[in-house]
Design goal:
The chain is of the alpha/beta class. It contains 10 helices and 19 strands. It has 3 domains: 9-75, PUA domain (Archaeosine Trna-guanine Transglycosylase, Chain: A, domain 4, Roll); 84-181, RNA methyltransferase domain (HRMD) like (Transcription Regulator spoIIAA); 195-400, Vaccinia Virus protein VP39 (Rossmann fold).
């Protein structure tokens, strides 16, 4: 096709378009032919036409010359570059999936590249939408994004939660602002038979971890009559939902006093305050103290933050995952269940299982894999972008060594 959008060109070096042709949408600065299209002359967030080394049009997107990941392809249709209409169209496509899969409006509506909108995240809390713009290109489209979300969802309020540290890689300021309507201090989440109140302005992510919802539902079959330990609990999602499934008690441990206040609030909201204990502490230190006190649990949930954020963290982060899982296994009864997760993309599924198995063998525990989990369908994995498949979860039975 020879007709191309009237946008500044960004030409790639020879053979550097191969990844884009597989469906990927990222371009790195060392792939750009800066002799023909000087990258530094472009403005952060500027819309561009992407061309191969022969000048053939590949798609349109946006650029950031100050970032190693310098451009992202948004559209392969020359008649539909990034605009309000394209945003509305992609939002409607994303909403179609969520409306089909979910019975209530509590989910991630837009998951960046996987939903064809790189640099954009939208989480839905009933009639409130929380939006994250993580790239200069999406920041340039801020008003258009708000207008599109308002048109598609007609929410009571839209909050821009633009305080993620990833924005610094794009040279962007960090801020949180109410973009439309009214957003309350606390918003509601319904998950399974439980209800939660979370803080969309200061809570982790946008206030909630929607990506683990399916795994928390899967967990319910193991908890009846059990004592559970919820490490890195945040506001108590795992522990409180375990009580929903019939657990007799839940201890929620987090290093944040604010998070534990959320645990207490959500325990009352779900009428389980008499069965929830909130304990402040750092994960490794708390696990050690519990072991020294000879405390034991039937289930332990490990849902830690990412220990491996960059490839150079792999060695140290892998050791941290092993230490954490080993400490958790030492607290399990003879026939206990460990639910362990990693949200580190660089920790592969096979590597996580190997690490946990090594931890078990070191303390003479044999493990059985009962189930495997990943992020839910509101976080779809793009088959050409492996980075979008980041969450790994295992349910493991821990037995005496055999």
């Amino acid at each position: 096709m020879n007709d191309t959008p009237d946008l500044p060109p960004l030409k790639l070096k020879k053979d550097q378009e191969r990844r884009l042709r597989t469906g990927h949408c990222w371009i790195y600065s060392n792939e750009v032919d800066i002799a023909q299209t000087p990258l530094k002359e472009l403005e952060p967030g500027q819309a561009v036409s992407l061309l191969d080394h022969q000048g053939k049009w590949l798609g349109s997107g946006y650029v950031n010359p100050h970032s190693l990941l310098c451009a992202r392809l948004v559209s392969r249709d020359p008649e539909h570059p990034l605009s309000v209409s394209l945003l509305v169209h992609r939002l409607k496509i994303a909403l179609g999936l969520r409306d089909h899969v979910y019975t209530a409006p509590y989910y991630r509506l837009v998951f960046g590249e996987s939903d064809g909108l790189p640099g954009l995240v939208v989480d839905r809390y009933g009639d409130v939408a929380v939006v994250q713009l993580t790239t200069a290109g999406m920041e340039q489209m801020k008003e258009a994004v708000v207008a599109a979300v308002d048109k598609v969802l007609k929410p009571a309020g839209i909050l821009l939660r633009n305080d993620s540290s990833i924005r610094r890689l794009e040279g962007l300021d960090l801020y949180v602002e109410e973009a439309a309507g009214t957003v309350p201090e606390q918003v509601s989440v319904q998950e399974g038979g439980s209800r939660f109140q979370v803080d969309p302005r200061q809570g982790q992510k946008t206030g909630w971890f929607f990506d683990q919802a399916d795994n928390r539902s899967r967990m319910l079959r193991y908890v009846r009559g059990k004592r559970v330990l919820d490490m890195c609990s945040y506001v108590g999602a795992w522990g409180i939902r375990a009580l929903e499934g019939g657990a007799v008690s839940a201890r929620c441990v987090d290093s944040s006093e604010t998070a534990l206040e959320g645990v207490a609030r959500n325990a009352v909201l779900n009428s389980v305050a008499d069965r929830v204990e909130a304990q402040k502490g750092e994960a490794f230190d708390t696990l050690r103290r519990l072991r020294e006190a000879r405390e034991r649990f039937d289930l332990v949930f490990l849902d830690p933050p990412a220990f491996i954020k960059r490839n150079k963290d792999l060695k140290e982060g892998t050791l941290a995952y092993r230490r954490l899982n080993q400490a958790a296994l030492q607290l399990l009864e003879r026939d206990g269940v460990l639910m362990t997760s990693s949200c580190s993309y660089h920790m592969t599924r096979d590597s996580l299982l190997q690490v946990v198995n090594q931890a078990g063998r070191h303390i003479d525990r044999s493990l059985e894999v009962l189930e495997q989990g990943q992020q839910g369908p509101d976080h779809p994995v793009h088959p050409a972008i492996p980075e979008t498949g980041y969450l790994k979860t295992y349910f493991l039975r821990a037995l005496p060594s055999f």
